[in-house]
Specification:
By secondary structure, this protein is an alpha/beta fold. The protein is 47% helix and 19% strand. It is built from 14 helices and eleven strands. Strand 10 (333-338) and strand 11 (341-345) form a beta hairpin. Bound molecules: nicotinamide-adenine-dinucleotide. Residues 44, 46-47, 50, 73-75, 78, 105-109, 111, 131-132, 134-135, 138-139, 142, 144, 153-154, 171, 174-175, 179 line the site of nicotinamide-adenine-dinucleotide.
Length: 360
């Protein structure tokens, strides 16, 4: 089974290929596309150890010259120091405008490599080979790239689209369970914001998905990429509809920050989605039964639904107001009206927010 789809952005459109084992054929496909004469493959040290040789072999067998550049795994590497180190390595290797970059890894590698591609020599072509569930269903598609600053996440970056995305579903078998479950929060998000049938698919295929059964996993990843591609094609720079992808992230980011990042992103998004649904119920936008049904699915996939009782509610509120997506002191929430449809509103009273943040 394999899936293909296109992200429709005019002359910056690009294909996404989803297939079990596609990593071994990336070289042959890139040779046909003539994107670059030579590639720098960028991976964290962990992914380089697991998959570096498969990808490098595939490139060399196709007659494509390539160098593998690595950096230490983890979010702490998504910064300007690691960026500068990699840029210097590109210069030392004599990487020029006819060359390209390949991001092999999770969202950290994709964001870092994409930003390098956007800025090194004022722009090189780049390719995404995402290896975490989060990067396969979210960060490798849509062209948001960047790095963190000590002052906050993703504060420096660029919109810069890849030339092609290769999603190898076989690599999910080595992903730690926590990373897989965390990625499933983003998967559930797509059903709630845009596709009731997909939500039902996730309810019905729970066992197959958790066992990484290939047919279900590929269909699931394809549907997420299709929805993200549709939304990005409508609003590449997040001035309007793309903001629906932030469902669960507004309160989720505040929970993540208030926990000093001890709650990992996917778990915080799950908590944030349930909070947003409760807010929608409090605002009389959504039925309580719909909110309960989504919370039940989130719970069934092993994700949390409640803000931990010991987390300081005032800190969560402080982070909500300083979120970089807050406009003129007004927090915009993505709230479901039913499963599969959302609206964006700032008409949320203090009392409605309090009712959602209260300890349960
Ligand atoms: P990550 O890239 O740090 O990967 C998580 C861990 O999994 C790492 O330790 C990595 O070495 C390991 N790993 C990766 N693939 C593996 C595999 N197949 N087998 C075993 N281990 C593997 O983190 P992530 O969760 O993929 O991405 C998080 C980042 O993505 C954040 O920085 C976030 O800001 C960013 N993000 C970007 C966008 C976007 O649109 N650009 C969207 C969402 C998130």
């Amino acid at each position: 089974m394999k899936y293909t789809l296109d992200v429709g952005l005019g002359d910056r459109s690009y294909p996404i290929f989803i297939e079990d084992g596609i990593m071994a054929t990336v070289g042959a496909d890139l040779a046909k596309r003539k994107i670059a004469k030579r590639f720098a493959v960028i991976a964290d040290d962990n992914v380089a150890r697991l998959y570096g040789s498969t990808l490098m072999r595939s490139l060399s067998e196709a007659g494509i010259a390539a160098e593998l550049l690595t950096f230490p795994q983890g979010e702490a590497s998504k910064n300007l120091q690691v960026f500068a180190g990699l840029a210097s390595r590109l210069a030392q290797l004599g990487i020029d405008r006819k060359d390209g970059l390949i991001a092999l890894g999770g969202g950290v590698t994709g964001d870092l490599t994409g930003f390098l591609a956007a800025s090194y020599l004022r722009g090189l072509p780049f390719v995404q080979v995402p290896t975490t569930l989060l990067s396969q269903v979210d960060s490798s598609v849509g062209g948001k790239t960047g790095v963190d600053l000590p002052e906050g996440k993703n504060l420096v970056g660029a919109f810069y689209q890849p030339e092609v995305v290769y999603i190898d579903t076989a690599v999910l078998t080595t992903l730690p369970l926590g990373e897989l479950i965390g990625g499933l929060a983003e998967v559930i998000k797509y059903g709630v914001i845009r596709d009731f049938d997909f939500f039902v698919f996730l309810e019905r295929h729970l066992d197959q998905i958790l066992c990484l059964e290939q047919a279900s996993i590929q269909q699931m990843i394809f549907t997420c990429c299709r929805i993200k591609a549709e939304v990005v094609a409508e609003d590449e720079r997040e001035s309007d509809i793309r903001r629906i992808l932030n469902f669960g992230h507004t309160i989720g980011h505040a929970v993540e920050a208030a926990s000093d990042y001890s709650i990992i992103h996917g778990m915080a998004v799950a908590i944030g989605m349930v909070a947003a649904l409760r807010l929608a119920v409090a605002c009389e936008l959504c039925k309580k039964s719909d909110a309960g049904r989504v919370a039940a699915l989130i719970n069934a996939y092993g994700l949390p639904t409640e803000i931990p009782a010991d987390l300081d509610r005032q800190r969560i509120k402080k982070y909500l107001l300083t979120d970089k997506k807050t406009v003129a002191g007004s927090v915009f929430y993505v709230l479901p009206t039913t499963i599969g449809k959302v609206l964006i509103t700032n008409e949320v009273s203090e009392a409605q927010l309090e009712s959602v943040l209260q300890k349960r």
